[in-house]
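task queued by scheduler; priority normal; single chain, no ligands, no partner chains; default sampling; output format set to C-alpha cells
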Amino acid sequence: MHNYPKIRVLSYIGVMKLNDVVDINAIEALANKYIETLTPSINTEDLGEWRLLMYLVFNHGDVIGLGKRCVTYPSDKEKSWSIGIPVPDLKQAAYGLEEKHFVRTSVDRRAEFHDPVNAKFADYSDLQTCLATNVIRGLEAAFLRGVTIAGKRIKLIRPV
C-alpha cells in the first residue's frame, strides 16, 4: 500500500475545457492543504488502517452536493466520498461558462442523493475564486456532517 495521507482529495472534471479557464490542479492542491489543516480537528485515529478519498466532481449545477452514500473498497481499506462542485453557466453568473461546455445540463443533486449546500455564486467575481471557495466550503460541510468508516464516525471533533 502507498504511503498516502489518511484523507486525500482528488478531482474529476465533468465540464469540457474547464481546465483551460480554471487551474484545477491549484484548486486540488488547495483542497489537500486545507485537509492538512483540518486533520488535527478530525478524529483520524478512528480510521485505523482505512483511508478516505474525497472526490471533487466538477459539473454543471447550482448547489454544492455532499454525497449521502460512499463507495467502500474493503480489500483496499478505502472509502470514497464525492462532493459535487457546481460550475455555473452564464445565466447563473457573469463569470460562468457557455452551455456548450457542459456534457449534461445538470447533475442530479436531489435531496435523496445529496445534502445541498448553497454555492453563493453572487458572492464571487471570477470562476477560479468561486470554485476554490466552494471546494473549501464543501469539504468543511462534509466533515461537519461526517462519514462512517468501519463502524466509526469520522468528522470534525473540534472547531477549526
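post-processing summary
- The mean pLDDT is 91.
- Residues 28 and 119 are 18 Å apart (CA to CA).
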